[in-house]
Amino acid sequence: MIHVFEGAEQPGCHPLFDAMYRDRKRIFVDLRRWDVPVIDGEFEVDQFDSPHSVYCIATDNDGRHRGSIRLLPSDRPHILGNLFPDLCDGPVPTGPNILELTRGCVSPSLPAAERRQVRNALTTAVVEYALQRGIDRYTCIADSGWLHEIR
Fold this sequence. Notes:
Layout: E1 2-6, H1 15-31, E2 38-39, E3 43-44, E4 54-59, E5 65-73, H2 79-82, E6 98-106, H3 112-133, E7 137-140, H4 144-150
Parallel strand pairs: 6-7
Antiparallel strand pairs: 1-4, 2-3, 4-5, 5-6
């Protein structure tokens, strides 16, 4: 099941967000070695987890985190515009109908086949979200392997 939440929760306030932040820490800090903030040694939460963020979170039948993706408004601070604008050939795409996809995360505890299913369900969810909300475009910083899989 996919749940859409508008606005971040602080660690300790919502069990599903806690599980998401833990999985993000396992993937982005422990596995990929990103230098990003970690709270209390277990939660990957950054300055873009804010009241303006939108989260699509996949859960199992018991409500446990299976995967998630964060959407950031591009007309507010966001990763591409504020940290990596040099990745764009021209101006960073911004506007009320453009969101940035970030922190795509599938629980590392899932077997590979389930991870693909969750990734595909989240991809479908963000497309449906765009269609329902009048989002024209998404921006994203991604490695070419992930982009190839999504296409």
